[in-house]
Specification:
This protein has six helices and no strands. It is an all-alpha fold and 108 residues long. It folds into two domains: 75 residues, no CATH class; 32 residues. The longest helix has 25 residues.
């Protein structure tokens, strides 16, 4: 069972590498193609059974979130964030107040 898990993870990494090459040449977002491949391999063809991955789902979800946040942090421009902080704060406050006001009006 452990060998199968490593084979599947290796195949996924290899697929990701070649998919990255394809994404850079076609300029199609990589997420769309990977979602399509996942749908084809899972529900349509039945090659991958979701029940096999249930024990690993919490770990994979955590690792995916770590990678996504790390990559977002690498691409973050701190000076741009600081320069737009006041605008974002006012917009957030406005949306919050409108949400609370409308929710109160409709629920009262």
């Amino acid at each position: 069972m452990v060998v199968e898990v490593f084979l599947i993870l290796g195949a996924i990494m290899l697929l990701g590498f070649f998919a990255d090459l394809l994404f850079s040449k076609t300029k199609i977002p990589g997420d769309l193609i990977l979602i399509l491949v996942g749908v084809i391999l899972g529900p349509i063809m039945g090659i991958v059974q979701p029940s096999f991955f249930v024990p690993f789902s919490a770990l994979v979800g955590t690792l995916a979130l770590i990678v996504i946040l790390f990559e977002a942090g690498l691409n973050l421009n701190l000076f741009k964030v600081l320069s737009e902080l006041s605008t974002a704060t006012w917009f957030t406050l406005l949306v919050f107040l409108l949400s609370v006001s409308l929710s109160t009006a409709f629920l009262h």
